[in-house]
Design goal:
GO terms for molecular function: peptidyl-tRNA hydrolase activity. 39% of the residues lie in helices and 28% in strands. By secondary structure, the chain is α+β, with helices and mostly antiparallel strands. The chain has one domain: Bit1, CATH 3.40.1490.10. The protein has a 5-stranded mixed beta sheet, sandwiched between helices. Strands 4-5 form a two-stranded antiparallel sheet. It starts with 6 loop residues before the first strand and ends with a strand.
């Protein structure tokens, strides 16, 4: 098992009104990118994730718009936390996705919950 309980918070844009499947895929893309950043920066921890068959818990939150998403990403970066923005591109799902690049989500973590709390506490869980 990983040495401590780790979480990844994924914040998705609520203003894009994504259907459940699209939202799930965007959250997954962002989470995977953030995990890859974590592994890149902590290669000695890779084996424990593989051996325990877990990458920590994931919580999906919603943000009002892109500006709020970018602010959370900047706060996480400034705090030294693994984080990744995901931009969807080439997929059409009107009205918000016409194939042009659209930033949809940011993932923060894996990290300890208390380290991410300052940037995640204002968001609501996706239902």
């Amino acid at each position: 098992m990983p040495e401590e309980k780790l979480y990844t918070y994924v914040i998705v844009r609520d203003d894009l009104e994504m259907p459940a499947g699209k939202l799930a895929s965007q959250a997954s893309h962002a989470s995977r990118l953030s995990l890859l950043h974590f592994i890149r920066d902590n290669p000695h921890r890779l084996a424990e994730f593989i051996d325990s068959n877990v990458a920590g818990s994931m919580v999906v939150l919603r943000a009002k718009n892109l500006a709020v998403l970018e602010k959370a990403h900047l706060q996480a970066t400034n705090a030294g936390l693994p984080t990744a923005m995901f931009t969807d591109s080439g997929h059409v799902l009107l009205p918000h996705f016409d194939g042009s690049p659209v930033t949809t989500a940011v993932a923060i973590g894996p990290a300890r919950r208390e380290d991410m709390r300052p940037m995640t506490k204002k968001f609501q869980v996706v239902k």
